[in-house]
Every structure is written in C-alpha cells, then in structure tokens.
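Dock fe (iii) ion; give full complex structure.
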Amino acid sequence: MRIDLHTHSSVSDGTEPPADVLAAAAREGLDAIALTDHDTTAGWEPAAAAARRLGVTMVPGMEVSCRSSEGISVHVLSYLHDPAHPGLLEEIARSRAARVSRAELMVKRLAEDFPIDWDAVQEQVAPGATIGRPHIADALVAAGVVPNRSAAFSGILTARSPYFVAHYAPDPARAVELVRQAGGVPVFAHPVASSRGRVVGEGTFHEMIDAGLLGVEVNHRDNPEAGRDWLRRLAKDHNLLVTGSSDYHGTGKPNRLAENTTDPAVLAQIAGLGTGSALVGDLPG
Ligand code: AMP
Ligand code: ZN
Ligand code: FE
Ligand code: FE
C-alpha cells in the first residue's frame, strides 16, 4: 500500500490542476493521496471526481499557513475537516487576502530591480488560486531573471531577502484548535525543516499539542535526520500519529510523488478521527 498525504495543485502553488495530480498518483500506482492546497479547499471537488474515475482514494485536506508569536512560519495540515466551518473559513479568508497585498508589496519592491510587474505575476496564477511566492518565482522565471523556482527561493525570494514581506497568518495553536472544531485532523507539516528558515522550539510544539494536535509529519525531505528522531520520540510521548509525505508541487519543486509515504494503519486512524468530511473511495489495506 502506498499513501501520500501532502500534495499541491494549481488551486494553490502546484503546477497541475487537481484532476492531473490525481492522474499522476494513479500513474505512480498510489493507493491513496491527500490534496492539501494552501489555505483553500477549492480543489476538493475536481480531485474527488478524478479519484472516483481513476479508483484512487482521495483524502480531502488543506495546509494552513501559520505564524508563531516569534514570527516563525509554521504549516498545519488538516485532513477531513468541514470545509464550511465558519471559524476556520474566516481565518483562511483573512490569510488569503493578506497574501494578495503581501504579494503586491513584494512585486513593488522587486520591480525596482527586476523586469517584473503585477500583471506578469497574475499571469502565473490560476483563477481563484491561493497566491504565494512560487507565483512570483514563476514570473521571474518567465522574465529570464532565474532559471527555476528553486533558484528564486535560494536567493531573491528567501525570508532573509530585502524583497521579502511577511503576511498575516493565524497562530499555530489557534489553527490546530480551529481544525479540531471543524472536525479535522491537524498534523504539523515538516516541523523541523530548518532549510526553509527558523523552526519553532519545544514550547510551540507543546502549545499545539495542548490545542489538540494529532500528528507530526516526520518523513518529509526537508526534515533533517536528527530532527526526525526527536519527532518520533515526541510522537511516542504524546501519542501523536506519524506521517510521511512528498509535498508534491508538480514541476514546481523537485519533490516526487510518494518519495515518502504513510502507513495504512495511520491513514485508518486519521479516517476514524476526521468527522468534518469523508474520504473519497475506500480505505486502502
Ligand atoms: P509563501 O507561502 O508564499 O511564503 O511561499 C511558500 C511556498 O513556497 C511553500 O508552499 C513552499 O512549498 C514553496 N517553496 C519553498 N521553497 C521552494 C523551492 N525551493 N522551490 C519551489 N517552491 C518552494
Ligand atoms: Zn506550496
Ligand atoms: Fe508546507
Ligand atoms: Fe506543502
């Protein structure tokens, strides 16, 4: 059984529409896949239709962008929540609006030094999609400033760059609480991904656990090995689920589908705990 619980489509910053992500999963021979676009569930319907057609199980999900009190970026995966829960909807709507003004400001700063403008960035965003730095990266690629997204992220677009602007995002413990209220299963995404920037300390983990965190994404390419051992111990001590996933973004990132996978028994537990929406297809295994 092969299960990948973290993927993105063009409904956020992946490069393929949801149905194509499901088709890629079917080609890879995956049994189940979660679609976890940033701060949106707009891909659930087309993904579910494709899942039924292809016979791949689809776990409705989302990746909630958060920011800790120290200003550190945290991502919380949510599985099987109610997509219409007002409290959660309100938070992601606020984040998504803030992402637009933040992108505009970043583009304004970039435009002083590079051939880029807001229209060029808009051309890279699918209608209604959650905008992010990857779309700005795509406009820089189109303008010939950088060869690909990764080059943009290792230079011009890093959080340490003078062009970088932060956007409003909920506190991670608050996001965990809202996901639980919406019947979802919150899992801390790539919690020790130090290559992306600063990571949170133990205090934030405990706040999230106290708020109802149910799992940690241990097997993810951005988590260094030493951090994974620490995460496994934390999971054991606090009875958290352990997941592994690719964080596939189509051609937007080197991450390959199913390069990390999740145990079927863990998916079964997630399916049992999530009450806000239903798995599309059967539980594999
Ligand atoms: P943002 O949420 O707008 O701050 O942008 C962060 C997003 O950029 C995350 O979803 C990452 O998956 C993506 N990202 C981070 N590093 C890279 C990279 N090297 N190449 C492509 N995408 C990246
Ligand atoms: Zn992304
Ligand atoms: Fe993430
Ligand atoms: Fe992601």
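Observed: Residues 63, 75, 189-190 surround fe (iii) ion (ligand 3) (CB under 6 Å).
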